Automatic annotation (TrEMBL):
Domain of life: Eukaryota
Family: Belongs to the major facilitator superfamily. Sugar transporter (TC 2.A.1.1) family.
Name of the molecule in the record: General substrate transporter
GO BP annotation list: myo-inositol import across plasma membrane
Organism expressing this protein natively: Morchella conica CCBAS932
Major facilitator superfamily (MFS) profile domain boundaries: 1-439
Protein localization: Membrane
Keyword entries, A-Z: Membrane, Signal, Transmembrane, Transmembrane helix, Transport
GO MF: myo-inositol:proton symporter activity
Species lineage: Eukaryota, Fungi, Dikarya, Ascomycota, Pezizomycotina
Length: 469
């Protein structure tokens, strides 16, 4: 929820922060706005890279607390910012929190949950990201002028991100550490207590079995120095393929341009003359939430691969239709000018909803699931870290280039949307050729599929079992 709120709240805030952060000599420019937006992604990249290492030292719970502190500090900093520079710092601090959260929360969920529930629980995480984004838009709508003055509105929209972090900070005292980390730090009794609590009615022999499995995995992991893991991830064919597919999917999730809508949809809608751009932008966030919920129900029934192969063509159609609509829409250069009524305005919303729906049902959620189930224990930390980093690097590129690209190319949003469509086309081919179906397969079966090379398994075997949690 915090990940979602803090990445999306910028959409409404961007509409109002200009006058507060401008000086007579230096008004806030498009570049400043891009920098303010994308500093969060850059912070997230750095945060994600360190989170894994920290998680092994101070525990998964400890790192969630660290993320909360960053969320709270960053929110306060943004709310009090007086210049573009200090705003960039505030957003980068929040970004650190987002990056730490984006790595640690799926890890925490997957280490704590029984393997048969892992995929769907990771989708719940994405569902909450999209819910946080919707809340951010709703808060943006409610607090925008005239409810609050222009200066107070964006300060409250961004500052409120600290509130859920305070709640989580307290709630985490009532949550357990993961059994895997406890075993790794020779706290076996506590680990047994957590396993009993999570699984409910497990017999003592089964608890021992689960703990035995964890111990085996932990042994191989802790004996490996970092360089050995690095070698293993590139030299072993199955690991290399797992890494390539995870990074490919995370890269596609961002390079398809979705977050340019998430961050800038209010700006886009105000440019094409919508009276209430934030309300209109809520359509984007709402569609994302609803179709991520649908993904939750479909992911185990239809299979990851098949959903992706439906999702990407839908995105391409949506993007090309948006490009056509942009081509026909005049761009307003001042907020005072009135657009002439045009059929393309409502059509643009419908086309964007098509794109967002197609994205949310597959590309929006599946990369997070795949990276949590593809890597064997030995390289899991490193592999998920690298895939998450790929996500944030491309998130940064898309966030930083959107406004300048639109400004240069305009009527150029259409050009950019065609570029996103081409990226999706490449993504489709890559997924079609390389990504094997893993629905219902156990960890070791996934490994054997990956060992045997690209795209060998199009099977649909059901019945997830236990594995090396
Ligand atoms: O899975 C999430 C989700 O799709 C969000 O809506 C998006 O903003 C994030 O970048 C992505 O990682």
């Amino acid at each position: 929820l915090l990940f979602g709120y803090d990445t999306a709240s910028i959409s409404a805030a961007l509409l109002h922060l200009g006058p507060s952060l401008s000086t007579p000599e230096k008004p806030v420019t498009t570049w400043d706005k891009s920098l303010i937006t994308s500093s969060t992604s850059l912070g997230a990249l750095v945060g994600g890279l360190f989170a894994g290492l920290l998680a092994d030292r101070i525990g998964r719970r400890g790192v969630i607390w660290v993320a909360d502190v960053l969320f709270i500090l960053g929110a306060l900093w943004q709310a009090l910012a007086g210049s573009v520079g200090s705003m960039v710092i505030g957003r980068a601090v929040v970004g650190l929190g987002v990056g730490v959260g984006s790595l640690i929360v799926p890890l925490y969920i997957s280490e704590l949950s029984p393997p048969s529930h892992r995929g769907r629980l990771v989708v719940i995480n994405v569902l909450f990201i999209t819910f946080g984004q919707l809340i951010a838009y709703a808060v943006g709508l409610i607090l925008s002028p005239p409810t609050l003055s222009q200066d107070l509105s964006w300060r409250f929209i961004l500052g409120l991100g600290g509130v859920p972090a305070c709640f989580q900070f307290v709630f985490m005292f009532f949550m357990p550490e993961t059994p895997r980390w406890l075993v790794q730090h020779s706290r076996r009794d506590e680990a047994a207590r957590v396993v009993r609590k999570v699984y409910g009615d497990l017999s003592e022999t089964s608890v021992e079995k689960v703990l035995g499995g964890i111990e085996q995995g932990v042994e191989t992991v802790s004996k490996d120095p970092f360089m050995a893991k690095l070698r293993a991830i590139f030299a072993v064919g199955a690991n290399r393929r797992a890494l390539a597919i995870s990074c490919l999917l995370q890269g596609l999730q961002q390079a398809c341009g979705f977050n340019s809508l998430m961050y800038y949809s209010a700006t886009i809608f105000s440019l094409v003359g919508f009276k209430n751009p934030t309300a209109t932008a809520m359509v984007v966030a709402g569609t994302n939430l609803v179709f991520t919920a649908l993904a939750f129900t479909l992911i185990d029934r239809i299979g990851r691969r098949r959903i992706l192969l439906w999702s990407i063509p839908g995105m391409i159609v949506g993007l090309l239709l948006c490009a056509i609509a942009f081509h026909h829409l005049p761009i307003l250069t001042t907020t005072a000018s009135e657009p002439s009524p045009s059929i393309w305005t409502p059509l643009l919303i419908i086309f964007m909803m098509t794109y967002v729906a197609a994205y949310a049902i597959g590309v929006g959620a599946i990369p997070w699931v795949v990276q949590s189930e593809f890597f064997p224990m030995r390289v899991r930390g490193l592999g998920t870290g690298m895939a998450t980093a790929t996500n944030w690097v491309l998130n940064f590129v898309v966030g930083a280039t959107f406004l300048p690209a639109v400004e240069w190319m305009w009527g150029g949003a259409e050009g950019l949307f065609v570029v996103y469509a081409l990226v999706c086309g490449g993504g489709f081919l890559a997924v079609y050729r390389t990504y094997p179906e893993t629905r219902g397969l156990r960890m070791e079966e996934i490994e054997s599929v990956l060992r045997n090379g690209w795209g060998v398994n199009r099977g649909t075997k059901m019945g997830a079992g236990e594995d090396d949690i």
